[in-house]
Amino acid sequence: MTERTVMLIVDDVEINRAILSQFFQNEYEILEASNGEEALEILESRNVDIMLLDLMMPVMNGMEVLGVLHKNPRFSHIPVIVTTSQDVVNSEVQALENGAADYITKPYNPIIVKIRVRNVMARLENEWRKVRQKAQADKISEMQNIIEIDQLTGLYNHQTIMTKASKMVQENRSVRYCIVYLDISCFKVINEMFNMETGDMILKTAAAYFKTVAGRRGLAARLSADQFALCVPEDTLDMELVIQGLDAVMRSLAVYRSIMFYAGVFVVDNVYLSVNKMLDRAHMAMNTVKGNYNKRYAYYDEELRTSLMEEQMLVRDMEGAMDNNNFCIYLQPIYNTDTNKIVSAETLIRWHHPQKGLMSPSKFIHVFEKNGFVTRLDRFAWGAACRFLSRQRDNGLEVVPISVNVSRINMYDQSFVDYMQSLLAKYDLEPWMLRIEITESAYMDNPAQLVKVLKKLKNAGFTVLMDDFGSGYSSLNILKDLAVDVLKLDMKFIQNFERSSRASIIMESVVQMAHNLGIDTVVEGVETETQVEFLKEIGCNVVQGYYYAKPMSTEDCLELLINEQ
Length: 565
Hints:
Radius of gyration: 42 Å
Largest sheet: 8 strands, mixed, barrel
Strand order of the largest sheet: 11-12-14-15-16-17-18-19
Mean pLDDT: 87
Structural class: alpha/beta
Distance between the termini: 107 Å
Low-confidence stretches: none
Number of strands: 20
Oligomer: single chain
Number of helices: 20
Strand content: 15-25%
């Protein structure tokens, strides 16, 4: 049953209380008090919705009651209509100044009394409605804020920027917008090296910077984990400055690791394209530079679109190529310059594509690294290398070790070393016969993990080579941390050495340093006799390159070994 509205009638004259009670008994629950003190006692124990208060009473008059009600927050909200005699005008004014909602005069006209009470209650209801509406609006605003805003960074979330960016580009067609996709390189490693609080600090600092970049004319959002997006007018976007500023902000955090953002930019040329597709294209552009220390951002353009279409074709054909034995290995011999004999060989993958012909790994490996297919390709190459080692022995040859490339993704495979050992067992090979080549960039992804894997490889008896040494910026730091057996020096080391004394000095110093550390060296990309003679002079007598031999099929390599021995 619905509770009735409660009216408190306060008057020292009983007949006045009776008259007023008769007016409202059908609409209100009536409470009565004969003076101000009794009224306050009732208020302590009952909820009252409206009060009819006589001003002239013994013990405690109406003015005094108004003063108490005004000072007490428990009662100050109760509307009070004072009752007075017709000739007491000043009291009515004073009562209104002290907080009374209205007044009625004696003798009571029932119609006027009811209208004034109804009006006061209507005003009160209207005030309460406003309060409820404001509270509801505040709650809706708060809920909307929770729904739209990323709680960690204060930026818009993924869903919100899709909605707001779509509206922005469609409603401002005279403005050309850019969608920028940004990602932190190796953020997972940063979290593992430090803690979640450090990671959160990095994200919040980046978010504050992106909000500044977006300004009033743009939008900034955190899409997920360490991925952000901007929607800004093209005329306000200078990506070179954005990256420089971002680097400066990250350096200010003094975190003991380089925090590098990469970015992709899509210039909006179709306002009806979904923002999700815009973000996808900006993401694709970013992926073309991620991990590149020299180029940190890229634009999505027609050339990139064509390149991505070609990548999709490779992905489409890769499974069939594996099933149809279209992949094969080539071998490039490595020579000792003192004896001009083959001392080892490197395994290189090739793809006999039905339409494109024989393809080198530079055409497809980067695609397969992104989609994970490279792990299957690696295992194929490792198995093929083991079969070639077995064929050498079957032909009565002195086995020449073969090195195989190991993609960085294998560093996270807990079964990697066990799998390599199982291959040796399957083909009855010794660990020294199958050499493991890793790249310097694998160290940059996760140094601790690579150190752990190399330790297991060394304990299992494998020889470990570091390929492309010198291509990154932390090469010397790697030598300090990683116990590798052989350094394969990047061919850039010997480019133009004839014209640059600095190049020759650096090359000689690296070779000497490696020897002092007990590490052998192999120089790749040797193409001329002059280069060979120089390398002999500085104490590097193991080389790989076109001067001695190009990559060749396993049949040609086996024949070469047979003729040599």
